[in-house]
Amino acid sequence: MAGPVRVLTVNAGSSSLKLALLDGDELVDDRHVERWGGEPGPIEEFLDEHGAEVIGHRVVHGGDRITEATPIDDEVQTYLESLTDLAPLHQPRAIEGIRVARRFAPRVPSVVCVDTAFHARLPTAAATYALPREWNERYSLRRYGFHGLSHSYAVRRGAELTGLDTGRGKVLSCHLGAGASMAAVLNGRCVDTTMGFTPEEGLVMNTRSGSVDPGLIGWLIDSRGLPPEEVFETLARRSGVAGLAGGNGDLRDVLDARENGDHDAATAFDVYRHSLVRHAGAMLAVLGGLDLLVFTGGIGEHQPPVRAAVGSALVFAGAAIDPAHNIHATEGEISAAGATARSVVVRAREDLEIARQSRVAVAVHG
After folding, report:
1. Binding-site residues for substrate, please?
2. Which residues define the annotated binding site?
3. Which of 266, 274, 328, 343 could staple 293 via S-S, CB 3.0–4.6 A?
């Protein structure tokens, strides 16, 4: 097929499903299923109603073999299934979406677009864990990075909004949502990122601890007798902002409670902010400076205090955020006058990125 236009994007979360039909960059229709357990109905009904020339599937983990958008055949699907233990919350649902689409519309090409692909060309020094070489080789251990579809779109859209050429620039992309990561993009290539082998590494998140000392985990298990499954469940689901703020990881509620004098909420936000600033500083050191600061994701788009906290900490790199623009921004530039590094808010549109990559994959592979 040459130059397909109408693309159905399938974005399956751990318990939800987002469908969107795009004709070029125009959204024809979309559907959000809040509670989705893998049943075929929503995808089949959407396809029956609209049809599609290509179906693009977002999948979190592509392992070390899928490093670009790839047409799905039985071999590719089996490989994606083998990676389930690396992303147990999201991978199974994405694979269910693939099964449904390939069974219901076998003549329509399905393409997998993986979040890890954006980081596949990380420099060796950034991608490699300082573990025994035989471990890294035997188990394919490396820093894979995540949120790649979001980062890819945000960097490109941020450049459009500011008129910058990211092919010759230093960009810090901040995807801040319930899950959060940063990506350092140098001349169009991701050269470092905060997430690693799994989406647990890096920034403090809504319910995830982010990076912690491995010795702490061993101590809890070996010296205090906590079951490993309880420790890892707690790090993933009951830590982060929620763990510090008494169980509520919604940053909107935490900020409100902080304004009302809640000490735990204030501490939770301070820890969250420190994590953002610390990792942003590390990313800028790798980049060697900053031309463009991009905010995207639910928090990045809708929480001015978070953007202000990051921007104020990066004044040394030329960033400066205009308070009035910041308060009212939904998408667009928020730089203050005189800033040498531009700052921008980008509305997350993974559907557009999935559609773009799917068209390219089908055009290249036929």
Report:
1. 58
2. 58, 175-179, 250-252, 298-302, 350
3. 343
Q: Is residue 161 exposed (0-12), middle (13-18) or buried (19+ Cβ within 10 Å)?
A: middle
For residues 277 and 283, what is the distance between their CA atoms, to the nearest angstrom?
10
For domain 164-345, give its CATH number from 3.30.420.40, 3.30.1850.10, 3.40.190.10, 3.10.180.10.
3.30.420.40
- Find the range with the poorest average confidence among 32-41, 46-55, 123-132: 32-41
Is domain 6-145+350-365 given the CATH code 3.30.420.40 in the classification?
Answer: yes
Residues within the annotated binding site for Mg(2+)? 350
Q: Name, in order, each residue with C-beta under 8 angstroms of 345's C-beta and a sequence gap of 6 or more.
A: 295, 296, 300, 301, 307, 329, 330, 331, 332, 334
* pTM for the whole structure: 0.95
Write the pLDDT tens digit of every residue in 237-282: 999 999 999 999 999 999 999 999 999 999 999 999 999 999 999 9
Amino acid at 182: M
Angstrom distance (rounded) from CA 228 to CA 244: 21
Cα dist from 174 to 34, 134, 208, 290, whole Å: 25, 33, 17, 13
Q: Provide the residue ranges of all domains of the chain, joining segments of one domain with +.
A: 6-145+350-365, 164-345
